[in-house]
Amino acid sequence: MTTYDSKRVAHIHRELHDHLPSDSALRVKALESLLVEKGMLNRAAVDQWIELYTDEIGPKRGAQVVARAWSDPAYKKRLIGNATAAIDEFGFTGSATAHLRAVENTRDVHNLVVCTLCSCYPVSILGIAPSWYKANEYRARAVREPRSVLAEFGVSIGDEVEVRVWDSTAELRYMVIPERPAGTEGWDENRLAALVSRNSMIGTDRDLSPARKAPQR
Amino acid sequence: MTTYDSKRVAHIHRELHDHLPSDSALRVKALESLLVEKGMLNRAAVDQWIELYTDEIGPKRGAQVVARAWSDPAYKKRLIGNATAAIDEFGFTGSATAHLRAVENTRDVHNLVVCTLCSCYPVSILGIAPSWYKANEYRARAVREPRSVLAEFGVSIGDEVEVRVWDSTAELRYMVIPERPAGTEGWDENRLAALVSRNSMIGTDRDLSPARKAPQR
Amino acid sequence: MDGPHDLGGRQFFGPVTVDEPEEAFHSDWEARMWGIDQALSPVPGVNLDWWRHVRELIDPVDYLTRPYFDQWMQIEAALLIDSGVATIEEIVSGKAATASPDLEPPIGPEKVRAASKHVTRYDRADGPPPSFRVGANVRANAVGAPGHTRLPAYVRGRVGRIERFCGAHVFPDAHARGIDRAEPLYTVRFEAEELWPEARAADAKERRACVHLDLWESYLEPA
Amino acid sequence: MDGPHDLGGRQFFGPVTVDEPEEAFHSDWEARMWGIDQALSPVPGVNLDWWRHVRELIDPVDYLTRPYFDQWMQIEAALLIDSGVATIEEIVSGKAATASPDLEPPIGPEKVRAASKHVTRYDRADGPPPSFRVGANVRANAVGAPGHTRLPAYVRGRVGRIERFCGAHVFPDAHARGIDRAEPLYTVRFEAEELWPEARAADAKERRACVHLDLWESYLEPA
Q1: Buried-exposed string A125-151: b where 16+ CB fall within 10 A, e elsewhere
Q2: Among D2, D3, D142, whose Cβ lies nearest the Cβ of C142?
Q3: How far apart are CA D199 and CA D205, in angstroms?
Q4: Residues D43 and D102 sit within 8 Å (Cβ to Cβ)
Q5: What are the angstrom distances between the C-alpha of B26 and each of B33, D29, D93?
Q6: Residue range A24-33: average pLDDT?
């Protein structure tokens, strides 16, 4: 049973700091060996989790959701009204998406998602969060200077556009519905989904026009 | 002329981070050589500054001030009323002591000095600040958990004693006048001064009894 | 807790690394650590908020410098030691020297797909009703909490407007101490000018911006 | 500025290193750096508050990890580059590649003793009179300042009591931009219970404590 004792755990962390090897790979290798030996871990299950999130559970899921929202106004309404139920239509509910909210970009509004306190992310539809999302720089700056951060991603936001930042402080998770770009009239969902970058669903990408070069992932 | 441009300087710091060698001694050696070559520095003056602060300007000065305050009630009154003028009677005014304030420990009050924002310290009477005074741990903790910090210095403060922390946020500098210990009746100023530890004038030492073992400096 | 994790609005961090490879995992050990965290036998009493707090308690410099999944390793190590399941010597050596714990057996590979669809809800239907109405102005507490809390420093003492009531959700400050108690949760909108002094300047570069946070009722007072 | 330097009250830093050698300097390079800082030709426009702000602008992780006098080296290096007195290549190589600047010549060893007695005053006799009286309750601003400021985060939005008026002193927020303007300065006493949530608990370990800060008038409002 864990103790919920902050001082005790802070002390354990200092002990670990003093005794663990510096190399992260060595740390993890020893932990894995120990857990297997203690009967607390099945290596094949670890392999399976990694495979699942490498091949299947990732931003392509979110892109499918966005493409349907672009194509089907009734679905978009359901997605904005109750995103958890709407992604369940695809069978995409899962880790960290029990309470999902979809926020929509428009000509006048740009949305940007961050977790300043840790690394909350809608894992079951976007997969493993990129490192920059979990890094000090993004967490510190996204809430205070979103336009400067977006500029580093190559996204320029006009003065007339309101930037809405969503700091994931509770168990709600946020996904951005980017604007459907011009020039995609009549495209089917698969073709549309190919335009939807991961970053556009976090808010660090905005213009998804088929004509643009080198989309930021 | 300096620019007062924060963003520019932050950028320069990142450049320095990327280009300077990791070893501090190498960094300082290169800086010294460059300044001498540019005619901005006299090495013998550097030697002289170091010598002065190694041999002469240090906590022994503060100890003399405290010993006189213990011996001469009129001096103590002047020290508490205007510490800058009172240390000037010894010729001790100088770096960082243009605005000095002396705060007195009593049976009911213990004073502790810190600078949470940088490393402000009454240099001309206490010399170079100890490393712990400038370290993250002391700066973070002294204002929030002074009794725990004092315990690490071996100083136990009873519940009946009020702890007054002084955070040096302006150009005022603070020195603590510790309590004169019992058993020192009739001692002259030199003998008294030998009891006064540096830490007692910062507030991380309290009991200066001649009988105690291993005073904390 | 006023810890190193509370990064929102801290100034002069450098540029964001935008040119990251697209792969989910950037090295084998990161993938292993992530997978271990999904697959290991649960340590009794550990929940998401206590797990987060254990991360927050990592030495502040380590928190800011050690790689992300390296911190996950340290969280799990600390939880194992805290619970008496492993010793620090075992963690360092990777070799068991004490008896195996009597825990729920670990998940096998055949159950991973089903587990990936598992959803943990944090709303509680029987939680208390909301005291604030949508559109009301609220001020976030000026003082934080000594332990785990989800009220970031950058909104403390600031006034925002209730944008939405989200239902009663498990209160993290209590949950991190093992208590499952719900409180009304709100999405609150704060204007940039309320949060950041430089946004008040006439020539502010960051114009027309706001930040939304999801905040529990006891973090808020009427304003 | 909400930077890494604003350390007061940040939790779970480790123990203080109390067993430090008594010598003033613990290594030769530290002594050299300290001496260089005393002895070098002043760079025009640099004052104490801007110098402090230049330290605050060091990369946050470097600020928390690089040795103290190493940071002094980086401050001086940044000021030399900022002023056009040296290039980064010169700083790294230690060899001059550009012309010597037209600055005040450096101090010689014969003048060091006199210089050590030099006092820089920050009070201004012609500054404005105080608006708050001793004993008055005041609340510190909830919002900080975008640049250099000496109002620590841990008192923002909190109520204290004016303990003493210290005269009008040079205002650091302006001084760090090169402006010598004075404002009334006060010593303000804050009770521990006002600052720290855990100090409010009935069984608080840290009892009967207060913190005094010296704060300028524009940091304060009546409470």
Answers
A1: bbbbbbbbbbbbbbbbbbbbbbbebbe
A2: D142
A3: 8
A4: no
A5: 11, 8, 10
A6: 98
DSSP of D60-127, one letter per residue?
HHHHHHS-HHHHHHHHHHHHHHHTTSS-HHHHHH----SPPP--PPPPPGGGHHHHHT-----B-TTS
Reported confidence tier of residue C207, pLDDT bands at 50, 70, 90: confident
Determine the pLDDT at residue C202: 86
Contacts of D65 in chain C (CB under 8 A): 61, 65
Distance from CA of D28 to the nearest CA of C (A): 26
**Buried/exposed code over B116-152 (b: 16+ C-beta within 10 A; e: otherwise):** bbbbbbbbbbbbbbbbbbbbbbbbbbbbbbbbebbeb
d(CA A63, CA A195): 8
A68-82 in b/e burial notation, b at 16+ Cβ within 10 A? bbbbeeebbebbeee
Contact between chain B and chain C (3 or more Cβ pairs less than 8 Å apart): yes
- pLDDT tens-digit profile of B128-169? 999 999 999 999 999 999 999 999 999 999 999 999 999 999
Q: How confident is the model at residue B217, as a pLDDT?
A: 47
How does pLDDT run across B101-131, given as a tens digit for each residue? Answer: 999 999 999 999 999 999 999 999 999 999 9
Instruction: Tell me the two tokens of residue D193.
Output: 């219970």
Q: Which residues of A190-206 are buried (b: 16+ CB within 10 A; e: fewer)?
A: eebbebbbbbbbbbbbb
Which phi and psi angles does C184 have, rounded to 5°?
-55, 140
* Crossing angle for the helix pair A24-37 and A43-55, to the nearest 10 degrees: 130
**Tokens 């492993």 belong to residue:** C86
Helices within A38-171 (DSSP H only): 43-55, 59-71, 73-81, 83-88, 123-126, 131-134, 136-141, 146-152
How many residues can be counted in chain D? 223
Q: Does the annotation count B95 as an active-site position?
A: no
Retrieve residue C74's tokens: 């340290």
Torsion of CA C193, C194, C195, C201, to 10 degrees: 30
B99: helix, coil or strand?
Answer: coil
As given in the structure block, the two tokens for residue C53 are: 């707090």
Q: Is B146 in contact with B116 (CB distance < 8 Å)?
A: no
Please give the span between the terminal C-alpha atoms of chain C, in angstroms, as a whole number: 24
Q: Which phi and psi angles does B80 have, rounded to 5°?
A: -75, -35
Residue in the structure block whose two tokens are 């069978």? A91
CB pair distance less than 8 Å for D142 and C158:
yes
Helix (H) / strand (E) element for D214: namely strand D209-216
Q: Give me the phi and psi of B89, to 5 degrees please.
A: -60, -25
Alpha carbon of A20 to those of A25, A27, A147, B8, D13: distances in Å? 11, 7, 40, 39, 19
Q: How far apart are CA D149 and CA A123, in angstroms?
A: 40
Q: CA B111, CA B118: separation in Å to the nearest integer?
A: 19
Closest residue of chain D to C66, computed from CA coordinates: D61
Quick one: which of A157, A207, A175, A166 has its CA closest to C208? A157
Task: Dig out the tokens for B187 from the structure.
Answer: 């001692």
d(CA B126, CA B130): 10
Using alpha carbons, select from B187, D56, C119 the residue that is nearest to residue A87: C119
Distance in angstroms (rounded) separating the CA atoms of residues C180 and B115: 41
pLDDT number for residue A178: 98
* C12 Cα to chain B: minimum distance (Å): 7
For the complex shown, is ipTM > 0.90? Answer: yes
CB–CB contact A10 C57 (8 Å): yes
